[in-house]
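Annex B. Sample input.
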Amino acid sequence: MAKQDAAKIRPIRKTKTSNRRTLVKNSGDISPKARRGRVIASVGTNYLIRDSSGQIVESYLGGTIITPYKDSTIVAVGDYVWYLEDSYSDVNHDAGAARILKVDLRRSKFSRKTAHYNTKEQVMASNIDNVIIFSSALDPVYNKKLIDRYLVSCEIGEVNPVICVNKIDLVPGDYVNQDLDIYRELGYEVHLLSVSESIGLDSVLESISGEVSLLSGPSGAGKSSFINHVLGGDFQDVGAVSERNGKGQHTTSFSRMFEIGDGGYIIDSPGIRELAVWGIEEGELQLYYHDFDDYSGNCKYPLCSHVHEPGCAVVEAVENNEVDLERYTSYLSFLDTL
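Annex B, continued. Sample output.
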């Protein structure tokens, strides 16, 4: 575990540049004085960038920016960007702020559809190795349909999913362990833990050691407590679960990257209650449910949706308990949203 320098995770000062319009271009030249760094925090169009020497630079988005991601989040936490530091101050921004000029190609990403705007991609983090799918055994109870959506989105974004269920000390017996066996059988990594009781944490940290991981999941599951344990201090606020609706309350308002030692980083992000997966068509969904792989080739029709067609080998496998019924139901629910 690595302690964080509090100065390096200070809140971003929002400036008037947040309201500027940005012209997005696919290509172009940038100033030879531009420097390269990595985005480690974002609030709107304001960002913190860590340069190659480890210094933190406050930056903003404005004017013209070169990026291949015109229909996506222009700048996301984890992006490598080129920026130019301003040496003057005016009414638009603070002295010493930097202007982002260009975004490099992303090797991986975790994204979803933007809320209320399904034609635009929201990138939650880029250039990452893992997504820690963080939920809890109780208060609020984990949702396997949501976990399934995470798994599909991880595969689309070419990142490794790590399923973590917190608060196992609140659930008696071996129920959660057995309930999640289906994911182990499919080859996914599963960790059961209790942050409050310091159970199972070492195995998670060993799994993500030396890598960049996004921490994501519902509010109230204990993500902030997990971050505080990993960093060895109270760096994120901890909130209680709403008694009115049993759902978590947001305690993380923006995404930020923390160093956790051994060359590894963890990106904390605001809690989510649902996940609209980006980059998938209706006919493609079955390809991401690998429970079907051994059976789909035996269906009567080559473009079988595994829903209503006669001679469907997947449906037959479900009826014979060879494919998990709950996973199949999850597939039908997911398919209906597409």
